[in-house]
Specification:
This protein has helices at 16-27, 101-112, 126-139, 173-183, 200-216, 262-270, 290-298, 368-371, 377-392, 402-407, 434-450, 500-520, and strands at residues 2-10, 34-45, 53-62, 74-76, 94-97, 118-121, 220-223, 227-233, 236-242, 246-249, 252-255, 275-277, 280-289, 313-315, 321-328, 332-335, 345-348, 357-366, 397-401, 419-420, 423-425, 460-465, 472-474, 487-489. By secondary structure, it is an alpha/beta fold. The chain has 3 domains: 2-76, Alpha-Beta Plaits (2-Layer Sandwich), CATH 3.30.70; 94-277 and 471-520, FAD/NAD(P)-binding domain; 280-465, no CATH class. The longest helix is centred in the C-terminal third of the chain and has 21 residues, at 500-520.
């Protein structure tokens, strides 16, 4: 088998027959010598708007493969299979805290290797979680333990389900995660698209199927179960307490807690688990008509292509990074609050990305010089802005036209937005310190030079996007263990990942470390 890269074909001529013609021309063989091909990667090259191309990488089966001259685009295909660690039998008790990507994939590997993990999750299982989230969006009734941020699948469940990552993955964990999602119900195109995504609608089914499979291997899930204490003896994990009263003995504890479990961070500090503050980013969501973004990205070919994504970066005059984050083509802005009196937002798309608006966070990097040197100062900074957002929007998502945002006052009414949760016309400027507003406005004007219409007056600004990443890192060594023996921090909440893929892969690394210690005994 050969791996053939950099096959370019017009989007108007995209078909299996034309792909075959491109392959045989590149390999300099007869069509009859090509037995078949399989897509490995598919991306869009939209740099020349008059000639937008698909760029493909394919796996091909050909006659007399050894006689074909290899070069930078024609390579022998090497196995890209992730090697699951050998099966073992053990009574070792592993508790996984959190059922987001890091928690699920660590539990999945543990179960595949013969261990029987217990996954505890403060929120509810996915079907019940959906009911609580929809009640919040429709009636503004918030369940602080089961919401957009807490519950089966983690915070990423109510997002776009983006699966792209720039990680150099020599162990093929990335591919394993994608194949696992397909195994449990995700569309197969996530295996080859440049920017794969599942969508909230498909991700929910995947999470449930994955849970049921882990249970079939002997794993156990405990929902509505919150970690409330960790008991330590001689600097070693002894047992945990959940829901203030139930003791569970455990040999290993995976902390896949997510970036918003602020009470759990306090608990970890109280029991002596070492942590440190880390920089993060904060800002707004910007909404544009999907047709405007598609036109800016694809020109006259926008009707022939999927909803367009963008990725934008800028260095402000005060030397801060400003960038787009969690871009949701054809999606919704959602109220992602998890605490009464505090308001945060996120973006969400279903698989088809067929809503009328596209949205993205535009965020500014902040660090300890902005909010203080103490461990929880970053958390307090987030909370302060979220309380302001709640007050400015009177409990609803505050939003305003970009033209009004620049002027600093609400002059025109915004109507009929694709938002999950109620919104209110309000002055978003009042949420932030002035430097954040100035950096965002400066960046949006610059982004307008890159994407025509990005800085149009009728773009919609909403606040506050505050949960871009964890403001705290739970320290661990090169064996993935914290300063307390038996405690393994993992994923985005622990400060070692950002998004579904890197969180899942980090959860796998932690599970591998635990499995190896089991073999060593």
């Amino acid at each position: 088998m050969l791996r053939v890269k950099n096959i370019k074909i017009s989007i108007l001529k995209y078909s299996d027959d034309n792909i075959k013609k491109k392959i045989v021309k590149k390999l300099n063989i007869d069509l009859n010598d090509l037995f078949g091909f399989k897509l490995l990667k598919k991306s869009i090259d939209a740099r020349i708007k008059s000639n937008i191309l698909y760029v493909l990488e394919v796996l091909v089966d050909v006659k007399n493969e050894g006689k074909i001259r290899k070069d930078k685009d024609i390579l022998e295909y090497k196995n890209t299979k992730y090697n699951i660690l050998k099966y073992c039998k053990s009574n070792k008790r592993v508790i996984v805290v959190g059922s987001g990507p890091a928690g699920l994939f660590s539990a999945y590997l543990l179960a595949l290797s013969g261990l029987k993990p217990i996954i505890i999750e403060r929120g509810k299982e996915i079907d019940e979680r959906f009911k609580d989230v929809n009640r919040f969006w429709q009636e503004n009734i918030l369940n602080e333990e089961d919401n957009v941020l807490f519950g089966e699948g983690g915070a990423g469940t109510f997002s776009d389900g983006k699966l792209n990552t720039g990680v150099n993955d020599k162990c093929y964990r990335n591919r394993f995660v994608l194949e696992t999602f397909v195994k449990f119900g995700a569309p197969e195109d996530i295996l080859f698209l440049q920017n794969p995504h599942i969508g909230t609608d498909n991700l929910c089914a995947c999470v449930k199927n994955m849970r049921n499979y882990i249970i079939s291997l002997g794993g156990e899930f405990k929902f509505s179960t919150c970690l409330t204490d960790i008991l330590i003896k001689n600097n070693k994990l002894d047992k945990i307490i959940v829901n203030q009263e139930e003791e569970i003995e455990c040999d290993s504890l995976i902390l896949a807690i997510g970036h918003s479990a602020r009470d759990t961070f306090k608990l970890l500090d109280n029991v002596g688990i070492e942590m440190k503050s880390k920089p993060f980013a904060i800002g707004v969501r910007v909404m544009h008509k999907k047709a405007l973004i598609n036109k800016a990205m694809y020109g006259s070919f926008s009707d022939f292509l999927p909803s367009a994504s963008y990725k934008l970066t800028y260095k402000s005059k005060d030397n801060r990074g400003v960038y787009s984050f969690c871009m949701c083509p054809g999606g919704y802005v959602v109220n992602a609050s998890n605490k009464l009196g505090e308001l945060s937002i996120n973006g969400m798309s279903n698989y088809k990305r067929d809503a009328n608006y596209s949205n993205s966070a535009i965020v500014v990097t902040v660090n300890e010089n902005d909010y203080g040197l103490s461990l929880f100062d970053g958390v307090e900074f987030q909370k302060k802005l979220e309380r302001k957002a709640y007050l400015v929007g009177e409990g609803f998502i505050p939003c305003m036209r970009y033209s009004d945002y620049k002027k600093g006052e609400v002059l025109e009414t915004v109507k009929n937005l694709d938002i999950c949760g109620s919104y209110k016309n309000a002055n978003v400027n009042l949420i932030f310190p002035e430097f954040i507003n100035e950096d965002i406005k400066e960046a949006i004007e610059y982004f307008g030079t890159k994407l025509i219409g990005f800085n149009n007056d009728d773009a919609i600004i909403l606040g506050v996007e505050s949960r871009t990443s964890s403001p705290i890192r739970i320290l661990r060594n090169d064996k993935f263990v914290s300063n307390i023996e038996g405690v393994y921090p993992a994923g985005e909440g622990a400060g070692y990942a950002g998004g579904i893929m890197t969180s899942a892969m980090d959860g796998m690394k932690v599970a591998e470390a635990i499995i190896r210690t089991t073999f060593d005994r």
